[in-house]
Fold these 3 entries.
Entry 1:
Amino acid sequence: VQLQASGGGLVQAGGFLRLSCAASGRTFSSYAMGWFRQAPGKERSFVAAISWNGGSTKYADSVNGRFTISRDNAKNTMYLQMNSLKAEDTAVYYCAADRHTVWGHTIEYDYDYWGQGTKVTVSS
């Protein structure tokens, strides 16, 4: 599967953005999905994960309650709604697909396919 992330940009603190991750192919629904981010000078870290049918989600503590992960399997697309953005949310955001039979991995090495990243900058 090929992934294309989009929707990043510059936003003021307290604002919102919605990221999208479009997947190619007809097997999107067979992949659990996740979002990761990499802030300047830091390692890539887990943001959120979603199960194959979207019925289960998991979040990093730092974004829980502010971000919402979702997916539309009919459109082969995953989303990340980001509200109440903070300066510390500034990062390049990556979407990833996980072909394992267990979903919800928080380690990047458990994901098999990656999008190219979309940059989010939150000004304080």
Entry 2:
Amino acid sequence: VQLQASGGGLVQAGGSLRLSCAASGRTFSIYAMGWFRQAPGKERDFVAAINRIGDSTYYADSVKGRFTISRDNAKNMVYLQMHSLKPEDTAVYHCAARSSGTYYIVSNYNYWGQGTLVTVSS
């Protein structure tokens, strides 16, 4: 599966953004999906994940209550709605697809999008 993330941009602290991830291929619904982010000079960190049918979601503690992950299997899309953004949320955000394994481990994801930059100004 090929993934294409979009929706990043510059936003003031306290603002909102919605990231989208478009997936190609008819097998999209067999993959659990995740969002990760990587700030300059830092490792890629788990942000949120969703299971294959979209009825279970998982979040990093740092974004819980502010971010919401969702998916639309009919459209081959995954979304990350972000509210109350903080400067520390600034990073390149990547969507990824996983066939198995623990949701927050980077190496368990088989396919990655190119990333979209989110910059939150103070």
Entry 3:
Amino acid sequence: QVQLVESGGGLVQPGDSLRLSCAASGFNFSTYYMSWFRQAPGKERDFVASIRWSGERRYYQDSVKGRFTISRDNDRDTMYLQMNSLRPEDSSVYFCARVIPGGSYVRDFDYWGQGTQVTVSS
């Protein structure tokens, strides 16, 4: 069955960096767009970034452009989110998600993981 497992979250100070990982299994990873989204308690889901099959195209929410980098390793069935210059407003639970083929990489997901908490605070 499809599984997505996020890791790498934690408590950091403003300006620090974190690298999130998403280990995928149960499907042909290299044939799917993949995305990261975040969701804070009581708030709506917030698209963060997306990456095409081979990583040749990457898309970002405006607020993270220049600070976050999405990447993937299809040999390892793993996706990453390098987050630099973190801000308190980046605090959230971060999820990796599989994009429904033909759907929007911003919102059309059929599977996602359990999430990893990122807290940015001094």
